[in-house]
Specification:
Elements (H helix, E strand, L loop, with lengths): L22 H5 L11 E14 L2 E13 L4 E9 L2 H14 L2 E2 L11 E5 L2 E7 L6 E2 L2 H10 L4 E7 L3 H13 L4 H8 L14
Parallel strand pairs: 7-8
Antiparallel strand pairs: 1-2, 2-3, 3-4, 5-6, 6-8
Amino acid sequence: MSEAKNVNPRNGGRQGRSQRRSFEQKKGEFPQEQGPELHEKVVFINRSSKVVKGGRRFNFSALVIVGDRAGKYGLALGKANEVSDAIRRGTELAKMRMEKISYKGYTIPHEVSAAYDGARILLRPASEGTGIIAGKTVRAVLEAVGIKDVLSKSMGSNNPANVVKATIAALKMLRTRDEIQQVRGLNRKPKDETTTVA
């Protein structure tokens, strides 16, 4: 009789926990952002403890956001046994998950509000020179994206993770005038184009 092999039919599968892919192996599957220097900001660090036979075992998680200050950002939660390792892992994961939002100039194109779980965020355009009127959590996101003048109001939950995700949900709802007109099928004429009357 032939010996039965423990093989998962889906792409070979994994035969045990020893074959679980490491973080470094997963990292090679994603394209790294090789553009300009990225702005990195640690939004929140959480410490959790587990009681074991020898005492307490601590674990740290770091919520990190990175951005090129030109409309692209990445958000990730890194976990490790040390704070520095959690921040490093969160930064690397955030660089893999870069996304782009729509905005033009120094502020957002229109007012927008969004919610995530218990957190609600309201963002309003501001005149040039106003600055970022926001708390430290919302400010971290807006600075990473590159928005310089905006008014904001945070309502509901103060959980940093929910506030960050609500802010990102609001930024994803932004649309420029050109994008809206393109969706509606309206073609804008250039300003220098003049119409002639026969």
